[in-house]
Amino acid sequence: RSFVWDPTLIVSQIISMQCIFYGLLGFWICIMDFIAGADKSLDQMFKYQELQFKGLSGRLLVGAYALNALTCALGLWYIVKRTKQCLDFTATVHFFHLLICWCYNLAFPQTLTWWLVNLICVAIMTVVGEYLCMRTEMKAIPLSLGVKTDL
């Protein structure tokens, strides 16, 4: 990683994280639909009225979003690799998700559940991503290549 402004790298990371976000969300929704015996639909991903705490399918969809936040944190760790940038990339991914949901519904998301679930997912994805990146950044850097001797 270079320390100069690299817009190509940043845009590539944003696109990669967006692909990971929707790919894994689709995966988790398919798993939850299989458990609930529900029909698969893009509405589950983009229609803000689908996210609800009522009914089994609504709770499983909320669970899919939570699992997606956890697995996307692994994407932050693998693609972004910087603790300081985890919140930035998480907010960017969810901002684009907001815009896509807005375009898909032709209306701004208005349910409290949608906002609550997405804010919790932002928090989960950021905290877990920062934890994973911090552990990697804090690894000891060997200063010599010689044989290690204990004194």
Automatic annotation (TrEMBL):
UniProt key word Membrane: yes
GO CC annotations, alphabetized: cytosol; Golgi membrane; trans-Golgi network
Location(s) in or outside the cell: Golgi apparatus membrane
GO biological process, one term: protein localization to Golgi apparatus
Transmembrane annotation, as ranges: 20-38, 58-80, 87-107, 113-133
Membrane association type: Multi-pass membrane protein
UniProt keyword annotations, A-Z: Golgi apparatus, Membrane, Protein transport, Transmembrane, Transmembrane helix, Transport
Top-level taxon of origin: Eukaryota
Family: Belongs to the SYS1 family.
Protein name, as recorded: Protein SYS1 homolog
Organism field: Owenia fusiformis (Polychaete worm)
